[in-house]
């Protein structure tokens, strides 16, 4: 019986070769997209899974209810108190630096070693890397010890068995206490060396408001995380507020309401890459991942719809076969199983083709996402094959049940082709397919418009030809370094101007704190800078004046703010220039002397945050945070000027260190890459959807028009023109297309409006994509169907009328 079923299946595949190819092509494309996105998602979810303690390690995040914002920092005494007063918390590890680099000296050589981390002494209790040399006990206890990865040990000593050896950094000797091997699995935490921020932690031991550290907590197994978050508020946040509120003259609850944090969030370590609200190591975009996955599933659904449509449209060709088989005793269940087998064979062939195509496209996909994904995870094969079985069941069962329900008497009489049985099913499924196609067209155009809007928006500054050089971390007094070299670097041929600013567009590096005025408080970013920085970046002055190097008060208590700062307090510009604020980083009041227009420094999707600008000498601790020098380069010889700057830097400023530099406009442009990739993927998916849908439409229209050839012959004999016949044959499909687009419009409006809500700078919902979707789908439908319709008008009249 099985052999007979297979023989019938291959006869029908050959007979309907066009629809067979279209089904194979559509399912192969859909399954390939599904597997690529699934591998991308699986790769993002796989970070930190190597860690044997992952079930009990949680990343700590703060929440500020008033601003509805999340932070990734904690103060040292808060973490220490949590272990003492909350039974569920067993241990903590703090870190305040990653990606660090130093010039290190051993007995035989001096080399630069990068990718380091600054972490507290419990680090190896949380990250039990494979120990190669030394011991983890007290490995990070004290300020004169360090641990090395095998890679760093080979770089410094040429071997890995180096526990007990000495390394000098900035004339300070460190003893290597342990050498470890980093895991090959995905991890955001892969330091090549680890040192302890001993001096900083010593100074921060009683500083409850210095949120300088990222933190992981080790919890007891079975901890109720929601209950823990409430305990953190009651026992940590309120305790800190009681201490800090004493000098502020407010209740602890009011203090938290003003300054936060008002809540905490604990995310499992193996979920931070994709699901954390904020992370020291950067967070992924789960929402975009879900959108891409949903779109890939939609393409598979479109392919399944093609299958259902084509199978039901071929019903008349197999009606007599079914009638004969029923007449000789075949049961309905046998017929259903036979048709499901035919569907499974097509799906299985598509699955095998999609595996080959996925392997072929994977290198380009890896390059697009900067990944190293390989097809060695059984989950990919399991879930993709499960999708194949689902498609087989859904797209096979509907036409199988439909065909198996034919009545033997009706089909043997040969009048099935003239009945209206099943037309509603094909039309309904075709409508669903066109609804999905219309959504892709509308969504693709809106995504394209939004990305263009962000890229063309006036950002409020000019980073053109502004060249930034980051300082290494080897200077005890970095502001003196800046002041020493800025006049010398002005003398380099091709350098037009020099400045320094903390709030650099595109850097992602900033700090913030509360700003108080009377009984109101807001959070604002810090913009310590040199006097000329805002003019240097072509920022526009809105009201008041610039900071002036000739006025001593401008390095004591005068500041500038941006429009967002003024608006957040609800002031007018004139009111702002008469007011003083008390920033959380200082005990003295600061007077506002100027207001600048907003300029975007973080991300084109985000609204500009309040920023306070002040000279770096105005506040003692900000002098120690001077971390760059910026040069405006003349346009006539940019490459030559950069070479001269690099040569001067490596000879006179930081010999032996990497030249860490970039052009600000190019760096800021990297913040668009994510959205440009979304635009590219949406365009590719859009093309795939249209291709699958139009091929399916062509095959379906071909089969349906073939069923009407006798009607065409009769009407042509009675004098109907070719144009009338073509329009008559395409009219039904045009009505279906019109209905589908009208249904898709409110759905597309809602979904794309939800997507646009993620952008503070967003376009108004445009009308053009909806109109273009309607017009383009009507034109494409007419073009695809009319090709077959025109061929039908050339029918051989004798062939179809000889029995009438």
UniProtKB/TrEMBL annotation:
Keyword Ribosomal protein: no
GO cellular component terms attached to this protein's record: plasma membrane
Pfam families: FtsX, MacB_PCD
Localization annotation: Cell membrane
Ranges where the MacB-like periplasmic core domain occurs: 20-231, 433-647
Residues annotated as domain ABC3 transporter permease C-terminal: 294-405, 685-796
Keyword annotations of the record: Cell membrane, Membrane, Transmembrane, Transmembrane helix
Stretches that traverse the bilayer: 21-41, 289-310, 335-358, 378-403, 424-447, 681-705, 733-752, 767-790
Molecular function (Gene Ontology), one example: transmembrane transporter activity
PANTHER family: ABC-TYPE MACROLIDE FAMILY EXPORT SYSTEM PERMEASE COMPONENT 2 (PTHR30572:SF18), MEMBRANE COMPONENT OF TRANSPORTER-RELATED (PTHR30572)
Protein name as annotated: Putative ABC transport system permease protein
